Amino acid sequence: xxxxxxxxxxxxxxxxxxxxxMLRLASKRRHRLLKKIGxxxxxxxxxxxxxxxxxxxxxxxxxxxxxxxxNIDLLFALPLRxxxxxxxKDLEELLNLKDHGFHRQADREEICDYVSKNLNRVCIILDxxxxxxxxxxxxxxxxxxxxxxxxxxxxIVTSRPSIP
Length: 164
What we know:
- The protein is of the alpha/beta class.
- Helices cover 36% and strands 21% of the residues.
- It contains seven helices and six strands.
- The protein has a six-stranded mixed sheet, with helices on both faces.
- Helix 7 links the parallel strand 5 and strand 6.
- The longest helix has 14 residues, at 51-64.
- It is globular and about 40 Å long.
């Protein structure tokens, strides 16, 4: 497993972590404060270390198999480089549900309603913060990253060490 650095709102420190350690850290919700505010993790690693291929895809696969995060019902892995993600003005735009087969407005509203009411059961992985200019991000997406919006959700952001 390759090394990456992760910053967690739970620990307040930056430290090198193995992939497995990052997955376990993202799973921890024992601390009372974390139960209230959710978890924000910024995974920093150089080019080619495996932020997308190793961490993001491994996390999604392990979750789908039921090996991690048993209290998570929905996981959204979203590439920030896509304008539909970093320019999203609300939850429905961010999740891009229409392009993923949810053509009926009622279905999209039901999913967004579930997410809004069950943030502690949702994980959002925002991949590639270094691939966009923060000045081009919508206020909605910036507030998610900062922990202001969707503050009960587990949010993991991947980036190279030099964030624009």
